[in-house]
Amino acid sequence: MTRVMTLSDRLNLGSKQGPRIANWSITVLSVVLCVLMLPTRFPGMELLGVGPNWLLIWVVAWSVKRPAWQGAIAGLVLGLIQDGMTATTPSHAVGLVIAGVLTARIQKQRFLQEDFISIALIVFGMAVLSETITALQFSVHAWINDRDSIQYSLSRIWYYHQRIALSSAILSSMWSPVIYYPLNRWWERIKAVEP
Amino acid sequence: MYSLRRWWGQYALKAGMVALLLSLAWGIRQTNAGIFLELYGILSRPFQGTPDQVDILETAQARELQQRVVELESENRRLQELLGYRENTSQEGVVAPVIGRSSDHWWQHLTVAKGSRDGISVGDVVSGTGGLVGRIVQVTPNTSRVLLISDPSSQVGVTISRSRSMGYIRGQSESRVVMEFFDKVPEVQPGDAVSTSSLSQLFPQGLPVGVVESVNLNRSPAPEAVIELTSPISRLEWVIITPNSRMPMPEDVIPDNAPSSNESQ
Question: What is the residue extent of each domain of chain A?
Answer without folding.
Answer: 43-178
